[in-house]
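For reproducibility, we list the full input for the 2-phosphoglycolic acid complex.
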Amino acid sequence: MQTLIAANWKMFKTGPEAAATVTSLAEKLGGACPAGRDVLVFAPFTALEAVARAMNALSGAMVGAQNLYPAEEGAFTGEISARMISACGATWVLTGHSERRHILGESNAFVGQKTGFALRHGLRVTLCVGETLDEREAGKLKDVLTEQLREGLADLPEGFSPDALAVAYEPVWAIGTGKTALSEDIADAHGLVRGLLKDFLGSQAQNIRVLYGGSVKPDNAAAILALDNVDGVLVGGASLQAENFIRIVTA
Ligand code: PGA
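The corresponding predicted structure, in tokenized form, follows.
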């Protein structure tokens, strides 16, 4: 299984700015992703085409959208369909990011609908899960992950390829705060996620990549990637500058 190093650029960068960052990444990496590593950038919708074009200079790199609406097309003002995303050259989509759950009020059920819809429409999905600090302190980590995964995976298409799905464990209290979870907390949560994937999906669970996200930085990436059941990382702030992101891609 290739290690997946994913960037989440959130609401940062115009198309030209995003393309310039990818061009700089491509130059510094000598035109190819390092052996054993997949590089994926979740760019804003308005930058998808520019990023996909710039990625022609970085072989093996992929682009994804940060959201989608689970319908073919229709009267859904402001929303973006799977077909529109694919037409921009993107092959992945994020679902269930904590900012969408907590700022925009997305439910576990809606996240599950989006995840299933995206997979049925040819996109690969990174499904994000994770607990808030209150939930962790109340001892609810396992319950929260169980519900987020049960509902998040409830609508998977028959025979989907495990390679088309990744799960990102991102403790909400570690996102954008500079507070990385302790190694033992990450290993513990990733073990829970792997166990739940086995409960829900059986033997396919082994081939689904489980990523860690939440204040991943150049100086902690290697240690995090070395932990059991960590098959990659999802990086926000530290992915915005090519120099920083490269140190994580090559960690
Ligand atoms: P961060 O964001 O690396 O800035 O903490 C991670 C994420 O939101 O995916």
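The beta strands are 3-8, 37-42, 61-65, 92-95, 124-129, 165-169, 209-213, 232-235. The mean pLDDT is 97. Both points were considered when choosing residues for closer inspection.
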